[in-house]
């Protein structure tokens, strides 16, 4: 970004006018004129620009964001600003009326030798806009567009106005930029001098060598080393032609050894002459067409209709002397195209019948038959030879033409058909949602009035069914109802940007869902409440689950469960868990349009660590298909298999007291979080995924090896922790300092500096993973405050403290008199009782684990025996792999028996049946 002195020097060098300098200074000093929101199908977001030192808005991640990548990488670009102040356009409409209105371009770009506004549009939109407003949008050539009124406005300041079409964007460059972006962020990256020398020497001696060959010949060179050398311009790779994620196909050149090699001129003129019917030739400057290839002569036809017959020997002599040459034709000739079209229209049955016909006439074609062909065979032979002359493929002449049979006369007059289509569009496809019968009766009346014979009811129904279903539902029921019928747009071509990235940690999806299970309070269950009065325990309701999933590998990176509804606190915590587990964050994070993802805290955190945020369109779950599909799988495989699940609440009128999930709740947040983490991190992570053909864990390890470790992107947990700590929900995060300290989530925290600032408000943050700590902003810095129950709570894990804090907060929110005295002291009692139970149950759990493993081995062997009996082949799963097909009921029965009979705990008040009941249900 330019300093003020550099900007003034740039203005003087370009000799800009005072008016132009004033316009540019206004753009540089002002905020974006509007906040982008994206359209119904656009993925909008913010990109953390290193060149500008700020986040840049984009309204389309496949158009505007791709253009941002070009501006970020282009050395000629000094600065660029999104959504600059509006400019005014003056032009004539298609009907000749004057249009004068304001317009906000997408970017204002300052380059080394000029500056101006740039507007990004898709090629599809530009083609439509050029028809609607030809005086505003005009095409220069195949991929270049211009906007005359924009150019006229910019010319008064000696600036430019450019239209950037999506046709100018190279998807390969976009993928390469994203691939190298982690290395662009740190310009101080260095590669060992010996490795650098070896790589550069190899590249200079063998220009064009692939990156895969470099790593094979120089074992010390890692993928990270090559990426750093490319990002720092030590090794040159054409980022517009080859993708770095496929090293076996990439060509690397020394930066000073780059050269362009063009094909010989003569090679482009080489054309092999094919002597077949339909081939065009050039004879003495005149164009002829081969129309007959006989045994002795070849028939030629000129454009004016003149026909001549040349002997084969004469024709070959003229070809050998170069007097007859073939014309340059496309790679696929017209005849070949016709043959391919005939084959593409032939069904499996057509090919089978043609094959049968060919076998019947093959003896006559070879001359090996001693009998004469019958009438049908003669007809087939005629069709075969005719197709051989026309298409050089006689087999296509044997295709049956059953599809051409039938009644071709139109039963409904054209004017009646058009009237029916118009009536369906107006009277059936509208918000009133008339039934077909009612619409048909209305159409009959119109036909009677106009004197037409109305078609049958079935013809009208068939006309309704033949109309586009998506548009029909959209007109009758709206966009959301029609969304499920919206056609999918798959990425079938290699040059398209993959929707899920090219490596792990490139794209991550964050979303929330409410767990379909009613919960109880583990705190109340362990504070001396009699189990016989379990109905008196307050209903904790359902919890909210926040997930972060890697799009490329479908691996669950982080899980956070709380009773609080979605908020930026959950977003910060899910990122913190990811940093704790992996030491890094995804390069791009995709979220929905929830208010929590637009908070200043969340966006600041992403911008600080250089993470691009993408927001998928509202009510478009397919844009988040990775995480949305996981929610569906988790419902079927985990949540809906637990006691107290709320599936039946979808039909609330059928719910009675005996089946009400609230009366069957046995799970606590602690155990639910433990088992759900095991399901995500161990079960789902190690089972083959249908889209990957391998498990997410295997795909993750392969992706890391292929894309590089990128250890320079690791984040220090302490640095991230302070930035990610949430603030209390109310009072804008501030707390009043009292004699006991500051109160956060019903607990008091103290710091010695509070004695000097009593009765004042300070900004506060709390740590959901450790309720013994909080932070207050005192005297210009964040100070660590401790809870008064620190001694009682020391030694417990972060997960225990996090779950306990969530339950404590929820209990106090219930505003029940019976539980108003829940304090830190009782929380300490809760953990003391947990420790006693854990000490008593440890031997039982160990024996239970052995029993489960033994039973699982027996079940696997029994499955193989059954498979041999039934003639099936079942591959045995890996030892220790917990799958959904594991016989939980048998295993849990063995576990309960062994735990209760063999290992009786010494603590009398521990009921093992109640303790293992949730596991049995799971």
TrEMBL record:
For this protein, the record's Pfam families field holds: Mu-transpos_C (PF09299), Tn7_TnsA-like_N (PF08722)
The signal sequence is none
- What residues does the Integrase catalytic domain cover? 500-704
Q: What name does UniProt use for this protein?
A: Transposase
Q: Which organism is it from?
A: Nostoc cf. commune SO-36
InterPro entries given for it? Integrase_cat-core, RNaseH-like_sf, RNaseH_sf, TnsA_N, Transposase-like_Mu_C
Q: Which domain of life is it from?
A: Bacteria
């Amino acid at each position: 970004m330019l300093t003020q002195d550099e900007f003034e020097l740039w203005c003087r060098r370009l000799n800009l006018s005072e008016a132009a300098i004033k316009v540019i200074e206004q753009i540089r000093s002002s905020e974006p004129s509007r906040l982008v929101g994206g359209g119904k199908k656009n993925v909008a977001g913010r990109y953390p620009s290193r060149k500008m030192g700020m986040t840049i808005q984009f309204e389309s991640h496949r158009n505007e964001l791709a253009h941002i990548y070009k501006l970020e990488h282009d050395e000629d670009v000094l600065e660029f600003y999104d959504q600059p102040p509006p400019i005014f356009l003056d032009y004539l409409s298609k009907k000749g009326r004057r249009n004068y209105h304001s317009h906000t371009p997408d970017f204002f770009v300052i380059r080394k030798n000029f500056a101006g506004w740039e507007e990004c549009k898709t090629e599809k939109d530009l083609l439509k806009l050029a028809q609607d407003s030809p005086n505003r949008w005009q095409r220069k050539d195949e991929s270049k567009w211009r906007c005359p009124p924009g150019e006229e406005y910019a010319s008064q300041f000696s600036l430019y106005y450019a239209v950037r079409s999506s046709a100018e964007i190279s998807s390969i460059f976009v993928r390469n930029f994203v691939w190298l972006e982690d290395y662009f962020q740190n310009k101080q990256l260095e590669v060992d001098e010996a490795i650098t020398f070896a790589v550069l020497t190899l590249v200079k001696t063998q220009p064009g060598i692939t990156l895969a060959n470099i790593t094979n010949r120089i074992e010390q060179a890692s993928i990270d080393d090559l990426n750093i050398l490319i990002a720092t311009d030590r090794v040159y790779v054409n980022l517009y032609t080859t993708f770095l994620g496929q090293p076996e196909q990439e060509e690397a050149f020394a930066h000073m050894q780059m050269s362009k090699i063009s094909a010989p001129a003569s090679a482009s003129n080489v054309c092999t002459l094919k002597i077949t019917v339909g081939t065009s030739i050039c004879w003495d400057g005149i164009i002829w067409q081969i129309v007959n290839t006989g045994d002795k002569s070849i028939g030629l036809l000129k454009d004016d209709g003149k026909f001549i017959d040349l002997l084969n020997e004469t024709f070959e002599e003229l070809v050998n002397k170069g007097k007859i040459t073939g014309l340059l034709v496309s790679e696929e000739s017209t005849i070949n195209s016709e043959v391919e079209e005939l084959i593409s229209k032939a069904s499996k049955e057509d090919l089978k019948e043609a094959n049968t016909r060919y076998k019947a006439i093959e003896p006559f074609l070879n001359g090996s038959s001693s009998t004469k062909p019958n009438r049908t065979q003669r007809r087939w032979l005629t069709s075969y030879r005719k197709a051989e002359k026309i298409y050089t493929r006689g087999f296509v002449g044997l295709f049956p033409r059953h599809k051409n049979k039938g009644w071709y006369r139109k039963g409904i007059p054209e004017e009646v058909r058009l009237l029916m289509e118009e009536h369906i569009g107006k009277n059936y496809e509208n918000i009133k949602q008339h039934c077909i019968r009612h619409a048909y009766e209305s159409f009959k009346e119109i036909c009677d009035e106009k004197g037409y014979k109305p078609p049958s009811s079935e013809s009208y129904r068939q006309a309704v069914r033949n109309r586009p279903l998506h548009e029909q539902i959209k007109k009758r029921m709206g966009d959301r109802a029609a969304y499920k019928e919206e056609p999918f747009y798959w990425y079938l071509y290699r040059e398209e940007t993959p929707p899920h990235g090219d490596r792990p940690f490139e794209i991550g999806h964050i979303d929330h869902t409410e767990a379909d299970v009613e919960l109880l309070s583990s705190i109340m269950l362990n504070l001396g409440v009699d189990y016989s009065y379990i109905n008196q325990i307050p209903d904790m309701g359902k919890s909210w689950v926040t997930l972060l999933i890697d799009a490329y590998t479908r691996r669950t990176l982080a899980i956070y469960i709380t009773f609080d509804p979605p908020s930026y606190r959950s977003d910060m915590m899910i990122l913190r868990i990811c940093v704790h587990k992996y030491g890094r964050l995804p390069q791009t994070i995709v979220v929905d349009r929830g208010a929590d993802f637009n908070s200043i805290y969340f966006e600041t955190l992403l911008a600080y660590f250089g993470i691009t945020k993408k927001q998928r369109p509202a009510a478009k779950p397919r844009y988040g298909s990775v995480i949305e599909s996981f929610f569906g799988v988790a419902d079927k495989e985990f949540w809906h298999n637990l006691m107290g699940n709320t599936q039946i609440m979808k039909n609330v009128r059928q719910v009675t007291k005996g089946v009400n999930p609230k009366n069957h709740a046995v799970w606590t947040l602690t155990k639910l979080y433990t088992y759900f983490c095991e399901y995500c991190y161990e079960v789902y992570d190690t089972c083959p995924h249908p889209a990957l053909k391998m498990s997410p864990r295997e795909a993750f390890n392969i992706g890391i090896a292929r894309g590089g470790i990128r250890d320079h992107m690791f984040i220090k947990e302490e640095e991230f922790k302070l930035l990610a700590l949430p603030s209390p929900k109310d009072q804008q995060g501030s707390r009043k300092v009292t004699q006991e300290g500051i109160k956060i989530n019903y607990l008091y925290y103290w710091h010695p500096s509070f004695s000097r600032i009593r009765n004042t408000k300070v900004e506060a943050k709390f740590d959901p993973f450790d309720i013994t700590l909080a932070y207050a902003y005192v005297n210009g810095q964040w100070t660590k405050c401790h809870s008064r129950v620190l001694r009682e709570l020391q030694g417990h894990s972060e997960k225990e403290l996090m779950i306990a804090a969530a339950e404590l907060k929820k209990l106090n929110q219930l505003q029940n008199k019976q539980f108003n005295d829940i304090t830190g002291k009782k929380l300490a009692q809760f953990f003391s009782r947990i420790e006693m139970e854990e000490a008593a149950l440890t031997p039982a759990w160990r024996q239970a684990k052995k029993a489960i493993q033994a039973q699982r081995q027996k079940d696997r062997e029994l499955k193989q025996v059954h498979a041999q009996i039934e003639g099936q082949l079942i591959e045995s799963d890996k030892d220790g792999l917990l799958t959904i097909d594991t016989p939980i009921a048998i295993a849990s029965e063995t576990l309960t028996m062994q735990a209760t009979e063999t290992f009786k705990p010494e603590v009398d008040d521990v009921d093992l049946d109640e303790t293992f009941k949730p596991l049995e249900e799971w």
